[in-house]
C-alpha cells in the first residue's frame, strides 16, 4: 500500500498479474463497512427483531443472487461461484442459530447480533492454516456487512450507475467480491491492490493464487 | 432412524475451498437427514458452509460422512459420488 511518507514519485514494487502500462488519474477505493453499535433491545422487541433479521438476510441474499447472475453473464459461470458461496453464508444454519440466540437470550439488536456472530466466524476462518480457506473470512465480513446495511436502513449505492465514467486507476487495500463485481471494466485502466484473495477480480487475470501487492 | 456412514478421501487439488464446499453444502441440503462431517478432531454440519470451510480439508485428507434420517443412505451415496467425481473440477 502507499505509505504516507512515500514521496509522490516513489516506485512501488508490486507483483504484475497482467502486462502493460496504464497512465491515468488514481481513485483511492475504500470499502466502507457499517459501524455497528452493540445496541440492546427490550424483551418485547425480540420477535420484531427476529423478523427484521430475516428480512435483511433475504434482501442481502437477493442482491447476491443478482450479483451472481451479473458476473456469470459478464465474466463467467465459474467466477460467479463466490457469490453463491456467499449466499450460503447468509443461510448458514450455525450463523442463523447463534444470531437468533443472541437476540432472544441476550437481547442484542439484529445488527449487533449478526455482527458479533459473523466476526467470530470470520476470525475462526482466519485462523485456518490454509490461506485460501482463511481468505473466506473477508467473504463472511462482506456478507454480514451487506445484511447489516439493510438493518441500518442505509441505501446501498449502486456503483454501476451514476459513477464517475472517467477512465481511472483503482488503488485499494482490499477488494471484496462485491466491490469488483460492480466495477465497470470500460472505465478502469488498472487496479493496484494490497491484499488480494482469490476473488473474481483475480479471476479476470491468469492468476488464481493468492497475490498481494499486485497490479492488474 | 436409519444411519449411514462412509470414509471419503479428498482428491481434488484445491480441497474443500469455496466452490467444492458450496457444492457439498448444496448437495447435503437436498436431504432431510442430519449429516455430519468429521475431519480429524473437527466436526461440522454438512449443511453449514462455514462449518465445512472450517474443517480445512485439503488434498489427501479423509472425511467421515455420517447421515442420520430416512434418506441417510442416499445422502451418503450422493455426497460420496460428488467427492469421488472431484466436484467435477478436474476431468
List low-confidence stretches of chain B: none
- What is the structural class of chain B? alpha+beta
Instruction: Please give the domain count of chain A.
Output: 2
What is the arithmetic mean of pLDDT of chain B?
A: 94
Helix content range of the residues of chain A, please? 40-55%
What is the first-to-last residue Cα distance of chain A? 15 Å
Distance between the termini of chain B: 37 Å
Task: Give the C-alpha Rg of chain A.
Answer: 19 Å
Largest sheet of chain A: 5 strands, mixed
Query: Which fold name is given in CATH as the topology of chain B?
Result: Histidine-containing Protein, Chain: A
**What is the CATH top level name of chain B?**
Alpha Beta
Helix fraction of chain B? 25-40%
Notes on the structure:
The complex is a heterodimer of chains A (216) and B (91). Chain A has 216 residues and is of the alpha/beta class. Chain A folds into two domains: 68 residues, no CATH class; 109 residues, PtsI, HPr-binding domain (Enzyme I, Chain A, domain 2). In chain A, 46% of the residues lie in helices and 12% in strands. Chain A contains eight helices and five strands. In chain A, strands 1-5-4-3-2 form a five-stranded mixed β-sheet, with no helix packed on it. In chain A, β3, α7 and β4 form a beta-alpha-beta unit. In chain A, α1 packs antiparallel against α2, α3 packs across α4 and α4 packs antiparallel against α6. Chain A starts with 14 loop residues before the first strand and ends with a strand. The N terminus of chain A is likely disordered. By secondary structure, chain B is an alpha+beta fold. In chain B, β2 and β3 form a beta hairpin. In chain B, α1 runs antiparallel to α3. The N and C termini of chain B lie far apart (37 Å). Chain B has one domain: 2-Layer Sandwich (Histidine-containing Protein, Chain: A). Chain B has a four-stranded antiparallel β-sheet with strand order 1-4-2-3. The model of chain B has no long low-confidence stretch (mean pLDDT 94). The chains are: A alpha/beta (216), B alpha+beta (91). At the A-B interface, α2, α3, α4 and α6 of A face α1 and α2 of B.
Amino acid at each position: 500500500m502507499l505509505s504516507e511518507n512515500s514521496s509522490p514519485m516513489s516506485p512501488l514494487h508490486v507483483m504484475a498479474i497482467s502486462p502493460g502500462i496504464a497512465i491515468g488519474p488514481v481513485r483511492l477505493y475504500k470499502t466502507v463497512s457499517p459501524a455497528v453499535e452493540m445496541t440492546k433491545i427490550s424483551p418485547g422487541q425480540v420477535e420484531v427483531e427476529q423478523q427484521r433479521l430475516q428480512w435483511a438476510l433475504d434482501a442481502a441474499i437477493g442482491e447476491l443472487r443478482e450479483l451472481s447472475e451479473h458476473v456469470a453473464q459478464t465474466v463467467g459461470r465459474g467466477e460467479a461461484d463466490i457469490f453463491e458461496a456467499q449466499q450460503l453464508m447468509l443461510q448458514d444454519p450455525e450463523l442463523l442459530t447463534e444470531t437468533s440466540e443472541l437476540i432472544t437470550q441476550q437481547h442484542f439488536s439484529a445488527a449487533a447480533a449478526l455482527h458479533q456472530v459473523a466476526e467470530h466466524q470470520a476470525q475462526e476462518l482466519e485462523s485456518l492454516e490454509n490461506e485460501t480457506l482463511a481468505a473466506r473470512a473477508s467473504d463472511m465480513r462482506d456478507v454480514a456487512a451487506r445484511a447489516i446495511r439493510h438493518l441500518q436502513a442505509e441505501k446501498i449505492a449502486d456503483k454501476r450507475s451514476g459513477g464517475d465514467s472517467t477512465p481511472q486507476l483503482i488503488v485499494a487495500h482490499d477488494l471484496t467480491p462485491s466491490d469488483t463485481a460492480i466495477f465497470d471494466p470500460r472505465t478502469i485502466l488498472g487496479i493496484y491492490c494490497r491484499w488480494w484473495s482469490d476473488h473474481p477480480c483475480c479471476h479476470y487475470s491468469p492468476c488464481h493464487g493468492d497475490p498481494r501487492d499486485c497490479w492488474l | 432412524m436409519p444411519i449411514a456412514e462412509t470414509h471419503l478421501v479428498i482428491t481434488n487439488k484445491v480441497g474443500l475451498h469455496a466452490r467444492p464446499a458450496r457444492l457439498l453444502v448444496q448437495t447435503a441440503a437436498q436431504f432431510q437427514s442430519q449429516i455430519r462431517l468429521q475431519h480429524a478432531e473437527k466436526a461440522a454440519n454438512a449443511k453449514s458452509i462455514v462449518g465445512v470451510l472450517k474443517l480445512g480439508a485439503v488434498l489427501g485428507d479423509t472425511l467421515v460422512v455420517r447421515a442420520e434420517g430416512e434418506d441417510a443412505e442416499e445422502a451418503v451415496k450422493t455426497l460420496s459420488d460428488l467427492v469421488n467425481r472431484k466436484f467435477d473440477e478436474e476431468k
